[in-house]
Amino acid sequence: MPKMTTNSPGPRTDDAACGRLKVLLERAAGGRDDQAWSDLWTELYHNGSLDVAHPLVLPTLADMADAGNADTAASALHLAGALLVQADQRHETRNLRRRYAPDVTRLLGAANRWRQTTTDRNDYCHLLEAVLNLEGDIHWAEDLIWGVVSEEYELECPDPDGCATLWVIIGERGFFSAPEDHAHCDDTETFPLQPADPRTLQGLGRRLHDLALTDGHEDVARALTYAFGEATCPECEQRFSIAEQIAARFTPF
After folding, report:
1. Taking Cα atoms as reference points, which of 173, 142, 141, 169 lies closest to residue 154?
2. Which residue of 26, 57, 71, 221 pairs with 212 in a disulfide if CB–CB is 3.0 to 4.6 A?
């Protein structure tokens, strides 16, 4: 990784914050340091005590993503994508993606390279999320991919009166919807999901499904047909698009 400096033009920060940022990034780049990554997430993403627009952040994450360590690259890509999506919604950082466009391009290229070589299912899903976040076209990629990884979504019925909160289960437990309070019970009434026909998928669903198949992740491709399919509300028995309800849950900052 190139030596990090504080001489590049960028937002002004006090010396202590700049020094802490540099130390955390160097620790994260050095290998398996879960605490360093946790602190970066907390201080860059959750509470903003470190400056996401600092000239060390995205270039260094891009360096990590370009390096040969898969775990470090995946962590860097996950954080970078999340930071950019968050920045898109905030007035003070809305131009971050444009300001660091060459680094975003590097990050996206790295995400697509790692996507094509990873064999772990969940790592692959998180790389798909990173690709979408780095592209910046949708802002609900985290919610979409979270359900594929965890094999469940907690959604609201689209009925205007908001008749129910429900669970949509996708994975080893089956493919069904159930009342919120009884999602994990064997004796509750469930409603089977209706997967999308891969031949009729369009837009984002078709793209993600095709990528998963091309990359050799047939189980992810199958899960995506359910995520872009339909569920039934256990209360009013209205059928609705799962993906549309995932997107509807997204609230900009």
Report:
1. 169
2. 221
* Predicted TM-score (pTM) of this structure: 0.89
Distant-in-sequence, close-in-space partners of 133: CB < 8 Å, separation ≥ 6: 80, 81, 82, 84, 85, 141, 142
**Sheet containing 174-179: which strands, arranged edge to edge?**
152-156, 165-171, 174-179, 191-192
The pLDDT tens digits of the residues spanning 194-239 come to 999 999 999 999 999 999 999 999 999 999 999 999 999 999 999 9
Task: Give the single-character DSSP code of 194.
Answer: B
Per-residue pLDDT tens digits for 106-134 = 999 999 999 999 999 999 999 999 999 99
3-state percent breakdown (helix, strand, coil) of the chain, nearest 5: 55, 10, 35
Distances (CA, A) of 233 to 130, 197, 249: 31, 21, 16
Pick the closest to residue 247 from 145, 144, 165, 175 (CA basis). Answer: 144
Q: Three-class SS of residue 231?
A: strand
149 CB-near residues (< 8 Å, 6+ apart)? 122, 125, 126
CA–CA dist 240, 98 (Å, integer): 37
In sign, the C-alpha dihedral spanning 9, 5, 66, 29 is negative
Contact between 50 and 43 (Cβ < 8 Å): yes
